[in-house]
Every structure is written in C-alpha cells, then in structure tokens.
Amino acid sequence: MSGHTSKMKILLGQVIGTKMKKTAKVRVERLVLDKYVMQYYPKRTTVFAHDAQEEAKEGDVVLVQQLPLPRSRHVKYLMDRIIYSQGNVTDPITGKKCDGSSYWDEDTLSQGQNDSEGRSGAELDASADVDSLEMGRQSEGTPV
Asked: Is residue 114 part of a domain?
C-alpha cells in the first residue's frame, strides 16, 4: 500500500496581479490565533496560480487548488474558478449594471460621450469645478 495520498489544499483569495503569462498572483487571507492574547489576527499569504485561459482580472475573488507537483519554482497552485468577478456588476433584481448604489444608464453613458466631444480634459475639469461651485453657493444661500 504505497499509494499515499496527500491532502490537496483549496484556498480562497483575491487576484492582485496578472502581469505574467498564464499566471495570477493571488493573496490569501487566513486568521491566526495569538495564544498570549487569545485573539485572532489576519495573516496574508501570496501564492502564484496557473491561469490557462488568462480570464482572471485584478480584484477578482478566485478559488485556487494546490497542484500535486509544482509547475515551476513559484507556481504551485491551479486557478479552479472565479467566484466573484470585479467590475461589470449586474443588480439581480433589476438586471441593470450598477456601481455601488447607482445604476449605469445607457442614456447617461451616451450623453456623457456626446458632451465631451471636442473639448479637452482640462476644459471639462474646469467647467465641472465652476458648475459645482455655483451650485454650492446657491445651496448655502449666499449671493453669487
């Protein structure tokens, strides 16, 4: 009975880098007990996971599985699947794209593109600052 099977680790982590080809840098956090204080503290570990399709992006929460044999000196894990993809979040109730508590409307996106045509970034910033200042003065009740 020489068939010794070792336990394969499965870890949950967040992708912090994808600059290498077919490899994702994943940060895994776990809680470690300090026996003197009897309190748990987070400990971070960084692992390199093989991402064959290069589908992971920075910020994604992924599930990685330990390989039976390391692929290279640093790559010892295989990216199993993406649990939560960062960005392009769709609200499950309305089915619209959202960013925090605000929704992305197709009308506002197209208007923003039309308004910015023919103006430089400095002009857009300056006009936005002037508009915000005028609105702030009107809400305070001070004359303009």
From this structure: yes
